[in-house]
Amino acid sequence: MPWQRFQTCVDRYHGDAKTRTLSTREFFSIMAFAQITGRESLSETILCLNAVPSHLYHLGLPRRLVRSNVALANHRRCWKIFYDVAKILIAEARTFYQTQPLDFNFDACVYALDSTTIDICLSMFPWAHFRKTKSAVKMHTLVNLQGKIPDFILISTGKTHDVQVMDVIEWESGSWYAMDRGYLDFARLYHIH
């Protein structure tokens, strides 16, 4: 993890201003641990970390974690910090995997384009109205198959049709794109060609 560049992102958005308990770096370490180990809730993550307090020191975390402090940090941290960090990590991973050979013989980059619908609570997110009793957002992802790294991610409302995303993507000349029938629009495909 490039911690100096991470701290630059934190400073850019004043992420550690008025914080007493958890720094942004500590919060990121907790969330990264939760993601890597497949924890499903904040309570489970804190319980797992507090089970071995001697290891918290090596992770750069306080000796005892409290769920309310982590929840407060989750609520107050600016999402732009982690967006910028994700872009940095994706750029580093892309340069790392550029020299890796593909499992198939193509002379150019190969991309896969697809979307997934994520259900969310209607009472908390009324702007993402999807059906009568349901809210949802849709995540459109363009993955570079060399290294399986996302090259483009767009989060839209659940009602956004897949084909509309084709107008936003910057298409790379000479590359191969695999997509399902949800992206079938002959005018847009001709424009890309």
Summarize, please.
Helix content is 38%, strand content 20%.
List the main descriptive attributes of the protein structure presented here.
alpha+beta, single chain, 193 residues, 2 domains, globular, 7 helices
Describe this structure in words.
With 193 residues, the protein is of the alpha+beta class. It folds into two domains: 3-95, no CATH class; 101-192, no CATH class. Helix content is 38%, strand content 20%. It is built from seven helices and five strands. The chain has helices at residues 3-12, 24-37, 42-51, 53-56, 67-76, 79-97, 186-192; strands at residues 110-120, 129-131, 134-144, 149-157, 176-179. Strands 1, 2, 3, 4 and 5 form a five-stranded mixed β-sheet that branches. Strand 3 and strand 4 (149-157) form a beta hairpin. Helix 1 packs antiparallel against helix 6 and helix 2 (24-37) crosses helix 3. The two termini are 39 Å apart. The mean pLDDT is 88.
